[in-house]
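User: I'm writing a tutorial on reading structure tokens. Could you give me a worked example: one chain, its sequence, then its tokens, then a sentence or two explaining what the tokens reveal?
Assistant: Sure. Here is the example chain.
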Amino acid sequence: MGSSRLRQLFGFIAGNFVRGLAITVPVALTIYIAYRAIAGVDGWLGIAIPGAGLLIVIAGVTLIGALATNVVTRATLAGIDQLLERLPFVRLLYTAAKDLMHAFVGEKRRFTRAVRVRPDPAMEVWSLGFITSDDLSRLGLPGFVAVYLPFSYAFTGRLILVPADRVVPVEGDSADIMAFIVSGGVTGRDRAPRP
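And here are its predicted structure tokens:
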């Protein structure tokens, strides 16, 4: 076999291997994380049937959501809420987790107003984020807004405070824009945010 044919063969193998990795790794990683999450929930509950723990948790959370509309249950949940908000140290974790959940779901969602923000007017660099507060007068910053900037490939982000005139609304579904940001601009290229 000549060196030209050998290079073609190795090129063919390498190209298909890389293409296979691009398909296999996201699928395998998703399956692995889902499996570990299900196994973890089963382990916490001490259930030997794979997936049963996850079904119990989903049913329990759904039941709590349904009961939360009941007057008696609502009063009990309000009492628990007040207790947790008064306990030292527990209050920090509880209120942060509660506010974060309400920011994504529920009636008080905060990540619904996507924007482009230009932190430095001297540079033509823009970031995508979500307005979380329109008025920062209480911080001594009238005319400023709070913009949350999620990080790519992470579940964290940072909060910046900028003058309102450096913020431009972005049209589009907030979930699509969040996916676009978290994926580093890779996800939904055909549905990229519009200024």
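What the tokens reveal: Residues 114 and 184 are 16 Å apart (CA to CA). The chain has five helices and five strands.
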